[in-house]
Structure formats: structure tokens, C-alpha cells
Amino acid sequence: MPKRDLYRILGVSAQAAPGDIKRAYRRIAFNVHPDVGKRPDEERFREVHEAYEILSDPDRRRSYDVETPIRRRPLAAEPLRSRAPVTVLDDFLTLRPSIEELLDQISQNFFGYREKSGGQLRRLGMEAVLDTEEARFGCRVPFRVPCYARCRACGGTGEWWGLCADCYGRGIIQSTRELTLEFPPGTRDGERFELGLESVGISNLLLEVRVSVV
Q1: Do residue 25 and residue 89 come from a single domain?
Q2: Rounded Cα gap, residues 200 and 179, in angstroms
Q3: Of 71, 96, 111, which residue is a domain's last?
Q4: 102 shares its domain with 208
Q5: First to last CA, the chain
Q6: Quick one: which of 31, 23, 30 has its CA closest to 52?
Q7: DSSP state of 161
């Protein structure tokens, strides 16, 4: 096992994410490549390539961090990377129940029609597509869930110089709220995760997300 500081060779911290290590390697390697680099340096290129081969492999990196004397201090936990939000109503292919059923179920939480659901907790099924790095190292995925909010035009009264044109006298309008689901490192294809929606005023639905790793 190498005794050199491989992180210093690549110019990254010991907490660097895989993407940061890859970018650092490419930047240096292209510059010192013996054939095409602006500053050819065969020894430096070999050194950088060796560091990248070890640090880009999760198992070899873990062994290096544990066994190399200059790295006896364990790595601090890397913060989970964040993904772009997933809007529930845009996911037509994987959404369960249908959009019409979903909106009806949600409306029961805001318009007092709970008797329609019979008090049963239903599951809002979706699919989250993660790449191999996101599954291996974990990530955060925000979900934009449809809900209702107090109408700003009338302040929730339903009236604004007569019947409020924005909410049609209901006092609330359709909106969206964002909830974040954290997928831990080592997430596997086919795993299912659940997230309660009570924080956005929806008590009769549970977000159930199935992971697909591609």
C-alpha cells in the first residue's frame, strides 16, 4: 500500500467526492501527459494515475484511508449530494394512484371530505432513478408534492371585492411543497423508501419510492 499522500498528489481533500477526484485527475493528467500534455512529465503522470486508480475505487480508497500511516485519521462523513427536485405530477409513467385519484385524495385533507377515503392511509408510489455513484455514496432527492395553500389574494377569506377570482371563493389554491428523501450510501436497486406527508398537511397519503439503479 502506498505511503504517499494520494490526496495531496491530486490536490483534493480527504473528504473529496468521487466526482471531484475524477475532475482533479483529468485536469492534471491532461496537462502532464507524456504525449499530449502542455507540460509533459512522465513521472508525474504515472504518480497521478496511480493515485487516481486507488482513490477512484471505493474499496481500495477505504483500505488506503485505514492502512496508510499518514491517513490513520478516519475520513469525515461526506455530505450527501443533492439532486434536482422531482415533481410528482410530472411523473406520469410511475405514479400510483393515477393523477386524478391522487388529487382527489389530497383534496380531502383541505376541503373536509375525509369520509370519502374511509380513513385509510394510501401509498403514493413513485420511482427514483439513481446512477451507480448516487446509489453507492448516497444522495438527497427533493420531491415536489401537490397540496393546497391559503390564497394570498384574499388572505383565505374567499372574498376580494366580491368573490375572489384567484381561489373562486374557496380561500385556498393549489400549490406544491417540497420534501426531501435521503437515500443512504449503499442503496440497492429495487429498495423501497417511505416518507410521510403530514408536514405539508396531507395525512392520508404516504410517499413510497422504489429505487431503480442505472
Answers
A1: no
A2: 8
A3: 71
A4: yes
A5: 32
A6: 23
A7: S
Residues 133 and 193 in one domain: yes
Phi first, then psi, for residue 8 (nearest 5°) are -65, -35
This prediction has a pTM of 0.54
pLDDT digits (tens, 9 = 90+) for 152-200: 888 888 887 788 888 888 888 888 888 888 888 788 888 888 888 888 8
pLDDT at 75: 43
User: pLDDT digit string (tens) for 79-112?
Assistant: 667 777 888 777 655 666 666 777 777 777 776 5
Contact 146, 174 (CB under 8 A): yes
- Show the cell assigned to 49: 494515475
Contact 114, 174 (CB under 8 A): no
CA dist., res. 9 & res. 53, Å (int):
12
Domain co-membership, 16 together with 116: no
Segment 208-214 mean pLDDT: 86
Report yes or no on 151 lying in a domain.
yes
Same domain, 41 and 104: no
CA separation for the pair 62, 54 (Å, rounded): 9
- pLDDT tens for 16-72 read 888 889 888 988 888 888 887 777 888 889 999 999 999 999 999 988 888 775 544
Residue 162 half-sphere exposure toward CB, CA atoms < 13 A: 1
Q: Which domain holds residue 38?
A: 6-71
Q: What is the CATH number of the domain that holds 18?
A: 1.10.287.110
Q: How far is CA 25 from CA 10, 76, 98, 106, 136, in A?
A: 6, 22, 47, 49, 20
